[in-house]
Amino acid sequence: MEQEFRPIFDNYEASRDGIIRNRRLKKPVGYINNMGYMQFGVGKKKYLCHRAVYEAFHGPIEDDLVIDHIDSNTLNNHLSNLQAISHGENNKRGRTGKCSKRPRPIVSFDITTNEKRVFQSINAAGKHFDIHPSSVQKVAEGIYQTARSKKSGNRIKFSYSQ
Fold first, then answer.
1. How far apart are CA 131 and CA 127, in angstroms?
2. What pLDDT, on a 0 to 100 scale, did the predictor assign at position 64?
3. How far apart are CA 43 and CA 23, in angstroms?
4. Do residues 85 and 110 share a domain?
């Protein structure tokens, strides 16, 4: 069955499956940005794919709303996985996709020393190794493989504790 594409810019269109493509060439466009979201460029301006898909099928997004990935997978831009929610609700959900006020425990593994540690939060792990919390989070979510500790110079792997 042929996918339905809707125009979003002069030369681009979006499908319900979350694909952005060049209308003339019929080729998908986009790349994963440093925050783990699919993004594409039109001239010098950059656009997030999930927002473009949502707007193509639901119209303009109100200023007080953000587009949330229901399953917390920032690469799943299927229309059924996108919802418009308030900034406050999005902050409550965080990256877990659930309303949670507690930080998630995280496990570190030092590749050089084979030392394993458990921390109560991303921030605590980042502070211990002198690694920015966003890098710790990206390793835990599989966006990066490791992060280098500024404290020891060692490469560290992170994963969420079960």
1. 7
2. 92
3. 15
4. no
Flag whether pLDDT at 68 surpasses 80.
yes
Residue span of the structural domain in which 32 resides:
5-93
Containing H/E element for 105? none
Q: Is residue 25 in some structural domain?
A: yes
The dihedral through the CA atoms of 45, 51, 55, 56 has a sign that is: positive
State how far the Cα of 136 lies from the Cα of 122, in Å rounded to an integer.
Answer: 6
Could you tell me the two tokens for 18?
A: 């979350």
Half-sphere exposure at residue 127, Cβ-oriented, CA atoms within 13 angstroms: 6
Instruction: Give the residue with greater pLDDT, 102 vs 72.
Output: 72
Cα–Cα distance list, 118 to 139, 160, 161, 162 (Å) = 15, 9, 8, 11
The domain total for the chain is 2
Q: Across residues 130-137, what is the average pLDDT?
A: 91
Could you say which DSSP state residue 80 is in? Answer: G
What distance in Å separates the CA atoms of residue 127 and residue 39, rounded to the nearest whole number? 30
Give me the mean pLDDT over the 25-31 stretch: 93
Per-residue pLDDT band for 34 (boundaries 50, 70, 90) equals: confident
- For the entire predicted model, the pTM comes to 0.60
How many Cα atoms sit within 13 Å of 114 on the Cβ side? 0
